[in-house]
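Minimal example, chain plus xanthosine-5'-monophosphate.
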Amino acid sequence: MRRRDCVLVVDFGAQYAQLIARRIRDAKVYSEIVAPSDLKRRIAAGGVIGLVLSGGPKSVYANDAPRIDLTELVGGVPMLGICYGAQLIADQLGGEVRRTGVAEFGRTMLRSVSGSVLLGELPEENIVWMSHNDVITAPPGNAVVTGSTDASPVAAFEDLRNEVYGVQFHPEVVHTERGDEILKRFLFEVCGASPSYTTVSVIDAAVEEIRARVGDERVLCGLSGGVDSAVAAALVHKAVGDKLVCVFVDHGLLRKGEAEAVVRTFRERMGMNLVEVKAADKFLQRLKGVTDPEEKRKAIGETFIRVFEEVARAGLGPDSAQPRLRVSHEREPASQQASLSKGELKEVPRFLVQGTLYPDIVESGTSQSATIKSHHNVGGLPETMDFELIEPLRNLFKDEVRRIGEELGLSEEIVWRQPFPGPGLAVRIIGEVSPERLEILREADAIVLEEIKRAGLYKELWQSFAVLPAIKSVGVMGDERTYAYPVIVRAVKSEDAMTADWARLPYEVLERIATRIINEVEGVNRVAYDISSKPPATIEWE
Ligand code: XMP
C-alpha cells in the first residue's frame, strides 16, 4: 500500500513538537513526529513530502546537541526549521549562529520583506512569539533574509532553489499572529501538500490497513469502556466484523457501576461479541504490597496481558457471533471454570487491538523526551506476549479520536466520556490498593461525578475525579474525634492532556461535593481541592 503523504516533524526535544504536528493536521495534512535518530528510516519508508525541524532546548554548539546531517537531505525534500531547527540549518549550511547576549522571549515585532514565499503578504510589521538565547547572525549560503527583529538580524530566511526555510520565531503558537498562515504556506506552496487528511480518509485508510493485515485471522480487543478502546473496537469491527471479539476485563479497579454499563453498551446496544472476564481477585492479589506507582502500572499491564492470553488460549469458538465464553478468576466452583479448558480451543486470535493514542507514545519516551509515566498500554507491556498488536489510533490525538468515534456512529455518551486511565482507580489510590480503600475512593468518586454532571460541567472538563492519599488526619464528627482519610478532588481543563489547568469550579459545587463526601463516605473526614496545573504536576496522581 502506498504510504500517505506526510510532513514529518523532527523532534529536537521541543515543548512544541506535538503542537506543530497538530497545526499541520488541522490544515488537513497528515503529520508525524519523528526522533532525529529515526529520520532516515522514516524517510526511506516513503510518503514524506516535507520536514519541519522543531525547536529544542540546546545550543547548536553544545556537545550533546541533537543533530542530523542536513547536507544529505537538502534538495531532496523541502524543509522548514523553527527556532533550534532554523539555527541547525544556518550552522550546517554556511550561515552563522552566535550567542550575542541578547535573548528574545515572548511577543516580538517582526519586520518582513515583501515577496517572501514563506511569509507571503504579511504586513511589514507583525507580532511573533520568540523563545531563544542564540541568534542567527548570517543566513545559510544560498538563502536570503526575509525577516528580522531588533535582536535577530536573521529572524526568517529562505533558499528557494533548495527549498530550505527557517524562522527563528514559533509559527505554531497562537501568539504568533499569522503563524497559521505561515505554516500553511509551507505545506501548500512549498511542499505541494493537498488538504486531504480528514476523518473519513483516516477511517478508510485504517479499515483498509486492518483488513489487509488481519486476513482471515481472529482479532481480540480489550475494552475498558473508555473512549479510546471503544473507538478502536468500532474501527476494527467496521474492518473485520465478527472476526473481532472484544474482551472486557473487569479488574475491579473501575468506577462505580461502570462494569455493568460497559456490558450493556457494547453487547446489548452495539451488538459486538463481548466476553466479560471478572478478574478483580487476581488483580488485587497481584497488587498486594505494591506501593510504587511505576511498579503498580507494570503489574496491572502485565496482569492484563496474561488475562487476555488466558482467554485466547481458552479459545473463542469457530464463529464468535455469540459470546460463548465466560472466564472468571474469582473464586468459583471448579465446574464453572470448565470453559477455560483447552477442549474448547478452536482458534487462537493472532491480533490484539489496543486504543493507544499518540500522546501515550510520545509521553512514554521517544528518544528525545524523558519517560514521565509508563502508560500501561505502552511501556508497561511485558516483553513476552502472544499477540501481534493492532493500534489503529496510535497516530491520533484525543480530539481526532472523538471525531472518528462520532463518524463511526458511537453514542455521544461514549464519545464524550472523560478519559479514564487503563490502570483505573489504582493510580488514584496512593500507596497500597486494598478492597477497603478502593471502596472509599469509588464512593467518593461517584459523588464527584454526580455533582459535576448535575452542575452541567462534565463536558467542559477534561477530567474530574477523586484521589485517595495515604495519610489520615484528625477531625471531629458529632462529639467524637475521628482519624480518617482525606479525599482530594481533581478537576482539570485540557486540550489533549499534554498540558492541563486546574478547573475554577464554583465554590457551591465544591461545597456540595465536600459535604456529601464527608457525610456519605465512611472513613473520610476531610476534602481538599487540587489546584496544580500540568506541568509541573500530572493529571493523575500516580
Ligand atoms: P497524566 O497523569 O500523565 O495523564 O497527566 C495524562 C492523561 O492520560 C491518562 N492516563 C492514562 N490513560 N492508560 C491510559 O489509557 C494509562 O496508564 C494512563 N495513565 C494516565 C490520564 O487519565 C490523563 O487523561
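The first helix runs from residue 17 to 26. The CA atoms of residues 109 and 127 lie 5 Å apart.
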